């Protein structure tokens, strides 16, 4: 439902046509083609291709230079994925429809097609399966496909022949595998007459016959492999030992630079080249090293660890290149090296002369750390950020003039291996040192905050954080609403409230001299002028430059420009109340209709018309060429202004027409119909020439508004009728006969539904208690809510929509009282999700747990823990040592020196107000590990928060095991504000944010780590999960601390990571059906407990009360080992489990499962209980459904959705999940058994209809990791429903009885995704 914004890989090239500068962005399971828009200074998405596979790597395959010279063909794209294949794709654009011209249209939409595909293995997710690394020769002679370990393939490329001319084909691959670990690879830029070279950073693996290397960092080598096309062989020609901290390779251009590669280590850059090594060996001299140290940030000079290089971007210019690289702290560096300086350096080294190194590294700027960077030739830098928003920048300076280096200091190196001292057995630590150049970050001189000096931010794109936890609930309209906790670190941790609907952003509000009753956007005259030959530039698009506001006191005109100002010079009469207005055809003036008559406002020949009998006009509407007006005491007249708007004449009259209440005309020609609503709650469709009645629609209630308009470019005409009870009737009108084709009804709210035009051609606005957008998408009607800012609107607000030149979004106008507000609305549903997101930052400590308050659903508790972070006391200490940084900057940093230093706090979040409370910090060094909210009968059923924490926690690094100090359970109560205010009136502070107060702390004497906590409110106890030795413990309420009650006697070989409970309601019936004796009355109140084990799937236990005693019994287990990431109950017999590899399974307790003992447990000892529950091993859970999502599911929640009239027979359980890359989805059961059977029948048909471009033949998508079972993929169904061949109807149906419309569900429809009789699907 909510797509991920994470960008994993990027590349750039000319994919649609030769010479175009385009960017390919690889999302988690698809790719996007983007093009730079010079007018808007941003990247625009041209095409999207869903792959239904996890993209591992992408690379541009240039076409021109396979055979040398220049070619007019566009570039291709190589994609490797978890399907175990490498696929060559090309973007095919339609040929221009000009006879004799073989060129592509400028901005026409194309489609991706597969040129060739090679299968590398059964799966691409294994460490030894090639596909993780891709490298292409600059002349596209060969493609290197490598794995992180062992496997390397060089695949030669060739041009297509015959009908395949213009395409690229794979040849048989050459195996170059060796027993080694690969860290990075790249293609070396060599001359056209030389063999293809690839550089690989690798380290040897110890084989069975060789002696293992001693402990320490592995020896790394830079190896050069050469591919000979004539001999069809791959040979390793050179291997150079490099530093153990080497981790990345950067290819240096050979035409505009010296060629070779740059080896990135933690401390320096090293340039290597095969040609320089060969030249030195021919002269029998040692090759002179060319290296330079990487500068270090001055404010982090106290850190002992050096940052790694994580991304780089390079662009080729005539006779030079521009190279930027970035470290993990976000610092950008510009690297300069040229062939002349390298040759001069070699000459000076041979003669023994000293000189400056040819390699120069300068600090450039600081931006958020990126996973991938693209640098275009025109100086635009696009950075796909890892945790912050993606940024599109412009390079405004080359960075050579700014002086940021301040001094050189001596620092010890990080790698200090223990060495044995001479003459003794004690080991000493060698501490070599080095000199480092420090630089100042760019800071604003006044605010002391970081700023950009060489870059200019042009566009910021959203980036979904990792969904650590999610809370789903139903809003008053029974739509799903989410609160998502984005974990990550520091200032990037945030809470997001996700609601269904188009998002809006408030721009500004202005005060008016009147209270408007009508808001009419007026088209800009230039948008109506004929502009032949500009179809490709979007001519004819609606553009508004004035807003007319009318009330009983008169009219007021606002001009939309760079500033919003009053306009008194347009000729509109402001002393009268305007009923309708429009711009005349070809922009020759305006039409203004008021009660006294019609005014044609033209600069040359204005026209004033009044009824011959002086009848006042009560209702009217006008287009740019036609007018229809209704009069008091009956009567209807139509007027025509001609094609150019220069004429004015009465075209037809109906003097006996009943009292007219509303009139509507379509704005788009050529339609010869109008709609008229009367006080008798009837809507008539009339022919314009004679005003003859064509069709009639009767309404059961009073009509609030009508609108006759088009919704797409296919001239489909629709009539909308808004009713006073909030319903909306939609009727499609035949554009030839005017007859009604189809009628549907929707519930838009509880207040009268008022309609207004959008851009007059493609969408309209329906406003009730909610605001909706009505439009067409892929040939189907869609009604989508618009999320408006409740602070700027009221139930009596008047809405309208407008468009402005230079804006890629629509304007939503809302008039409330004397205030009119302007908000931007993203109307492109293909580029934006239908879910709006409001964000709330929770400070500088990363969020880890999210739990909702049981009695106040809008209040949620957030547990935050930051590893190697700073608490407020540490910030002041660091700031005292380094006055150059403000405390806000210090607190947002993470220091590698602060080992085992945790900062933890707890926030309360109000999702209704989108506000978080100040943090409640724990003791210094404490870590919050688990949290839950529930109530105890002994505490008056007031909800309390139980927090599992420990001190001095170290999760372990290297070969060290995790360690921790004292562990405890902290219990907090919610201190509610006083309900009586200072004035003595009750309810003054009822909506204020509660505060947390510590009740008591329970020390855990056994010392194990509380990894999961769950408070069972129905049973009045708290469950705590520990490691393999302690297992599951049960605690009760106590005055001074929690009281230990019971322990699950059976332990497991894995840690408990998640706990969920549900009341058991069907045990008695199941036991009776299985033939067991009736259970005793002591077992009436039981609770089922779901425990997710770290790597042993799930276990189900049962809590039993017998008199005053309590017991925990293990009753069932999943026999398949799964690395559990999340688990929850769907009902008391069904559970959902997700693992860390992106798979989701639904398990069910079989009907024959024994959940209780056949006799009372009053007198049984612990040993007897263990012996009596040995049947658990013979009671496995059954798999009902399984599905591969492709991303690690971090949170699962079951939400019960009430019965929907006409769609479901009863309540529906929706299973909501959130992934590690920010995606939110849901699984929903089929409404009936018949629908499930139909879905099972259509499943193979749908899989055959849609084939993933990177999919291996004969394998359905999304089923590579675990077999798909009883699941219909809703995303696949959605793509098929959007395709040209529509064979699944998604149109709403309407039942009409006795003239009364029975409305179907107006909420978004569910796409099929899962099931069978057990039923579980995706929205």
UniProtKB/TrEMBL annotation:
Tell me the compartments it is located in: Nucleus
Coiled-coil segments on the chain, per record: none
The signal peptide annotation in the UniProt record is none
Source organism, top-level taxon? Eukaryota
Which terms in the Gene Ontology molecular function aspect does this entry carry?
A: nucleic acid binding
Which residues does the UniProt record annotate as the domain RSE1/DDB1/CPSF1 first beta-propeller? 7-399
Give the UniProt keywords, A-Z. Answer: Nucleus
Gene Ontology CC terms: nucleus
* Record has Nucleus as a keyword: yes
Q: Which InterPro entries match?
A: Beta-prop_RSE1/DDB1/CPSF1_1st (IPR018846), Beta-prop_RSE1/DDB1/CPSF1_2nd (IPR058543), RSE1/DDB1/CFT1 (IPR050358), RSE1/DDB1/CPSF1_C (IPR004871), WD40/YVTN_repeat-like_dom_sf (IPR015943)
UniProt keyword annotation of Nucleus present: yes
UniProt domain RSE1/DDB1/CPSF1 second beta-propeller: residue ranges? 541-790
Chief location bin? nucleus
Domain annotation RSE1/DDB1/CPSF1 C-terminal: ranges:
904-1278
The molecule here is called Cleavage/polyadenylation specificity factor A subunit N-terminal domain-containing protein
- Organism for this UniProt entry: Bodo saltans (Flagellated protozoan)
């Amino acid at each position: 439902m909510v797509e991920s914004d994470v960008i994993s890989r990027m590349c750039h090239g000319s994919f649609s046509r030769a010479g175009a500068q385009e960017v390919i962005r690889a999302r988690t399971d698809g790719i996007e083609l983007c093009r730079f828009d010079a007018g808007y200074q941003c990247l625009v998405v041209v095409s999207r291709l869903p792959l239904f596979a996890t993209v591992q790597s992408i690379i541009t395959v240039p076409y021109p230079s396979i055979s040398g010279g220049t070619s007019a063909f566009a570039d291709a794209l190589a994609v490797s994925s978890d399907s175990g294949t490498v696929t060559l794709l090309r973007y095919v654009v339609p040929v221009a429809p000009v006879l004799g011209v073989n060129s592509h249209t400028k901005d026409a939409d194309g489609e991706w097609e597969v040129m060739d595909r090679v299968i590398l293995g059964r799966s691409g997710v294994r460490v030894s399966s090639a596909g993780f690394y891709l490298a292409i020769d600059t002349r596209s002679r060969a493609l290197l496909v490598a794995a992180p370990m062992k496997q390397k393939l060089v695949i030669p490329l060739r041009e297509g022949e015959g009908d395949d001319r213009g395409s690229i084909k794979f040849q048989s691959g050459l195996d170059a595998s060796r027993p080694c670990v690969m860290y990075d690879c790249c293609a070396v830029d060599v001359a056209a007459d030389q063999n293809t070279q690839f550089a690989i950073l690798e380290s040897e693996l110890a084989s069975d016959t060789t002696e293992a290397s001693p402990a320490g960092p592995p020896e790394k080598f830079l190896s050069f492999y050469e591919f000979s096309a004539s001999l069809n062989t791959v040979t390793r020609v050179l291997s150079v030992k490099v530093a153990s901290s080497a981790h990345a390779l950067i290819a240096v251009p050979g035409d505009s630079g010296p060629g070779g590669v740059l080896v990135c280590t933690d401390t320096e850059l090293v340039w290597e080249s095969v040609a320089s090594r060969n030249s030195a060996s021919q002269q029998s001299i040692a090759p002179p090293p060319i290296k330079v140290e990487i500068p270090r940030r001055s404010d982090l000079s106290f850190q002992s660890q050096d940052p790694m290089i994580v991304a780089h971007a390079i662009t080729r210019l005539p006779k030079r290149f521009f190279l930027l690289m970035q470290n993990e702290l976000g610092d950008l560096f510009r690297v300069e090296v040229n062939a002349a300086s390298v040759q001069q350096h070699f000459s000076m080294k041979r003669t023994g002369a000293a000189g400056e190194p040819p390699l120069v590294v300068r600090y450039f700027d600081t931006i958020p750390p990126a996973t991938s960077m693209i640098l275009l030739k025109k100086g635009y830098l696009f950075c796909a950020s890892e945790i912050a928003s993606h940024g599109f920048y412009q390079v405004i300076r080359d960075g050579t003039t700014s002086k940021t280096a301040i001094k050189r200091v001596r620092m010890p190196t990080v790698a200090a291996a223990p060495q044995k001292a001479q003459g003794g057995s004690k080991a000493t630590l060698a501490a070599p040192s080095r000199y480092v150049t420090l630089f100042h970050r760019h800071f604003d001189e006044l605010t002391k905050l970081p700023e950009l000096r060489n870059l200019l931010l042009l566009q910021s794109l959203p980036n979904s954080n990792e969904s650590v936890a999610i809370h789903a609930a139903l809003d008053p309209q029974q739509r799903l609403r989410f609160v998502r906790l984005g974990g990550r670190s520091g200032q990037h941790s945030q809470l997001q409230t996700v609601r269904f609907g188009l998002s809006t952003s408030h721009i500004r509000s202005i005060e008016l001299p009147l209270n408007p009753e009508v808001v009419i956007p007026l088209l800009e005259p230039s948008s109506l002028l004929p502009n032949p030959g500009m179809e490709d530039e979007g001519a004819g698009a609606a553009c508004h430059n004035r807003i007319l506001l009318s009330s009983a006191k008169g009219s007021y005109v606002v001009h939309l420009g760079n500033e919003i100002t009053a306009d008194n010079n347009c000729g509109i009469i402001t002393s009268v109340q305007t009923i309708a207005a429009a711009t005349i055809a070809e922009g020759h003036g305006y039409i203004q209709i008021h009660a006294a008559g019609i005014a044609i406002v033209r600069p040359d020949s204005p026209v004033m018309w009044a009824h011959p009998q002086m009848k006042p006009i009560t209702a009217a509407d006008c287009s740019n060429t036609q007018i229809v007006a209704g009069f008091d005491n009956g009567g209807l007249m139509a007027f025509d202004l001609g094609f150019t708007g220069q004429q004015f004449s009465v075209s037809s009259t109906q003097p006996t027409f009943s009292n007219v209440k509303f009139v509507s005309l379509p704005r788009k020609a050529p339609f010869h119909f109008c709609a008229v609503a009367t006080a008798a709650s009837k809507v008539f469709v009339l022919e314009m020439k004679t005003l003859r009645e064509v069709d009639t629609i009767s309404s059961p209630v009073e009509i609030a508004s009508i609108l006759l308009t088009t919704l797409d470019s296919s001239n489909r005409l629709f009539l909308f009728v808004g009713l006073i009870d909030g319903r909306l009737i939609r009727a499609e009108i035949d554009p030839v006969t005017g007859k009604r084709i189809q009628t549907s009804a929707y519930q838009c709210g509880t207040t009268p539904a008022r309609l207004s035009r959008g851009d007059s051609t493609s969408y309209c606005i329906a406003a009730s208690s909610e605001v909706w957008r009505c439009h067409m998408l892929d040939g189907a009607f869609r009604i989508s809510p618009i999320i408006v800012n409740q602070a700027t609107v009221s139930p009596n607000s008047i809405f309208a929509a407008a468009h402005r030149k230079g804006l890629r979004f629509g304007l939503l106008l809302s008039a409330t009282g004397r205030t009119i507000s302007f908000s931007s609305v993203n109307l492109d549903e293909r580029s934006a999700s239908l879910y709006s997101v409001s964000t709330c930052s929770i400070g500088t400590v990363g969020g880890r747990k999210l739990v909702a308050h049981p009695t106040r659903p809008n209040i949620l508790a957030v547990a935050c823990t930051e590893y190697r972070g700073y608490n407020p006391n540490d910030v002041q200490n660091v700031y005292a040592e380094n006055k150059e940084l403000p405390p806000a900057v210090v607190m947002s940093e993470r220091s590698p020196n602060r080992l085992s230093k945790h900062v933890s706090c707890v926030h309360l979040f109000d999702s209704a107000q989108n506000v978080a409370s100040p943090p409640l910090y724990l003791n210094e060094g404490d870590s919050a590990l688990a949290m839950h909210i529930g109530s105890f009968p002994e505490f008056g059923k007031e909800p309390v928060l139980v927090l599992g924490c420990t001190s001095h926690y170290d999760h372990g690094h290297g070969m060290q095991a995790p360690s921790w100090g004292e562990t405890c359970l902290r219990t907090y109560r919610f201190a509610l504000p006083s309900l009586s205010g200072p004035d003595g009136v009750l309810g003054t502070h009822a909506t204020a944010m509660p505060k947390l107060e510590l009740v008591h702390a329970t020390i855990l004497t056994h010392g194990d780590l509380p990894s999961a906590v769950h408070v069972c409110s129905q049973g009045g106890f708290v469950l705590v999960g520990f490691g393999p030795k302690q297992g599951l413990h049960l605690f009760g309420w106590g005055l001074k601390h929690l009281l230990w009650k019971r322990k699950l006697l059976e332990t497991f070989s894995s840690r408990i990571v998640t706990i969920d409970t549900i009341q058991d309601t069907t045990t008695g019936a199941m036991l009776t059906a299985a033939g067991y004796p009736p259970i005793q009355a002591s077992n009436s109140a039981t609770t089922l407990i779901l425990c997710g084990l770290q790597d042993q799937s799930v276990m189900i236990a049962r809590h039993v009360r017998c008199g005053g005693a309590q017991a925990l019994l293990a009753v069932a287990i999943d026999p398949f080992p799964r690395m559990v990431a999340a688990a929850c109950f769907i009902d008391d017999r069904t559970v959902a489990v997700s693992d860390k590899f992106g798979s989701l399974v639904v398990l069910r307790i079989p009907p024959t499962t024994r959940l209780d003992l056949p006799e009372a447990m009053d007198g049984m000892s612990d040993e007897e209980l263990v012996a009596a529950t040995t049947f658990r091993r013979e009671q496995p859970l059954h798999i009902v459904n399984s599905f591969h999502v492709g991303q690690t599911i971090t949170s699962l929640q079951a939400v019960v959705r009430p019965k929907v009239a006409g769609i479901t027979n009863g309540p529906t359980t929706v299973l909501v999940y959130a992934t590690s890359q920010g995606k939110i989805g849901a699984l929903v059961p089929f409404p009936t058994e018949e629908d499930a059977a139909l879905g099972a029948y259509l499943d193979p048909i749908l899989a055959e209809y849609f084939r993933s471009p990177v999919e291996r033949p004969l394998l359905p998508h999304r089923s590579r990791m675990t077999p798909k079972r009883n699941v219909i993929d809703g995303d696949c169904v959605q793509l098929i429903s959007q395709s040209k061949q529509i064979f699944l109807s998604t149109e709403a149906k309407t039942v009409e009885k006795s003239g009364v419309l029975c409305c179907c569900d107006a909420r978004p429809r569910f796409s099929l995704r899962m099931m069978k009789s057990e039923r579980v699907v995706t929205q």
